[in-house]
Amino acid sequence: MTHMNITCSSHVCLYPVRPSRGLLDEKFAVLVQNVPPGFQLTVHARHKCEDGHSWEAFGHYTADASGTVNGVKLSAGTFWKLVMELYGSAVEMRKMNVQTPMEVTVSAYPGHQTEGFADQVPLAGVVVERWYMAPGPGPFPGLLDVWGGGGRLVEYRAALLASHGFAALALDYLTPKVTMGTGKMVGNDYFEKAYRILETHPQVIGSRIGMLGLSFGTSVSLKMAVFSQVIKLRCVVCISGSHVQPVDGTLEQIMTYFNQNVEKTRINEDNHVIWRDLLLPIPTDLTLKVDVGRLQIPLLLVVGEDDQNWPAYESAMDEMMERAGNSHLLTVLSYPNTGHLIEPPYSPHFRVSIFKTIHVMVLWGGETMAHSHAQEDAWRKILVFLRENLYSGMKPGVTSFL
């Protein structure tokens, strides 16, 4: 949902136009009117995160003969090239409270400017709120949303998936209360219990549940899909991950296996940590990698070819599935110049950021433009994949999604 508070100065007006209501992963356009023909201006977007950090982006435009700037296309989360106003910090921009909108202030300034926006009065401004919305009465297909090794409960992707018609449950499996209180990591039963919660929920179609994993979440998702006797999935989406892990290991043993190769960590000239070599070379021992050849459900792999954190590009799961004769179940989206953190579209690209659990600067990889276009393309295709595999064959009128 979008709420607009339009302000005008000196008869210059800036309007957000269609869609007047929309989701976080949709684009909207801005119209500037009543400026002199040929007038140069800067359209500036600013978002203040819940952690207090502010992010900004801007673009330069020239008015047409009627004094109008039309077709300023913005993403719902503002621009994909949002950067922090206070440069030097390497924190990530993530929406934590998904029950409130993401608020962005879009303003117009005279001339083609690059800095000093906070010290000026804009020609015009508008506040745009982007919501996550749940559509229809249900019941809905279910989806387990499993993030990576950074821990914490991250819900904005699950909320956005819910907006597209999936009953999504985000899992905090590395830093839940039981782990923080006892120091003991959860077991497979944690994920199986989450699956049963979805399966038996009255608003969920229990026979239509998928799983989506990012980074270390891919390890969990593949293991559950292949080996769990409880979790019966319809499809799996794996982003920036690998099937390499001790297949009989607990979550804690898997983490230990990853860490035992810590000597393969590289540090670049900027003192950024590169972890992609920890799992290389890909082992030939089948006890050290999930046999994806046993999968009997569709699998979508999303790979950044410049991933500096995980060897997703080298994992070659497609070869294992080809040998097993189930490659028809595999779809691979591979993106050049794209890094590790492939998130929903219009999220800023983080080539480097702080890995909070151990407070080091990690190199994720990717080039801003290529990575950002990959996020947009991958998200669209992920939604298509989920709809095809979780909605296909349902009776008309059972539910609806936006």
Secondary structure topology:
Blueprint: E1 4-9, E2 12-16, E3 27-33, E4 40-48, E5 54-62, E6 69-75, E7 83-84, E8 102-110, E9 124-130, E10 140-146, H1 156-163, E11 167-171, H2 177-182, H3 188-200, E12 204-214, H4 216-227, E13 235-239, H5 251-259, E14 266-267, E15 273-274, E16 299-304, H6 317-324, E17 330-335, E18 352-355, E19 360-363, H7 368-390
Parallel strand pairs: 10-11, 10-12, 12-13, 13-16, 16-17
Antiparallel strand pairs: 1-2, 1-9, 2-3, 3-6, 4-5, 4-8, 5-7, 8-9, 14-15, 18-19
Written overview of the protein:
Strands 6-3-2-1-9-8-4-5-7 form a nine-stranded antiparallel sheet, with no helix packed on it. The protein has a six-stranded parallel sheet with strand order 11-10-12-13-16-17, with helices on both faces. It is an alpha/beta fold. It has helices at 156-163, 177-182, 188-200, 216-227, 251-259, 317-324, 368-390; strands at residues 4-9, 12-16, 27-33, 40-48, 54-62, 69-75, 83-84, 102-110, 124-130, 140-146, 167-171, 204-214, 235-239, 266-267, 273-274, 299-304, 330-335, 352-355, 360-363. Residues 1-8, 76-89, 128-133 and 396-402 have low confidence and may be disordered. 43% of the residues are buried. 20% of the residues lie in helices and 28% in strands. The two termini are 12 Å apart. The longest helix has 23 residues, at 368-390. A hairpin with a 5-residue loop joins strand 4 and strand 5.
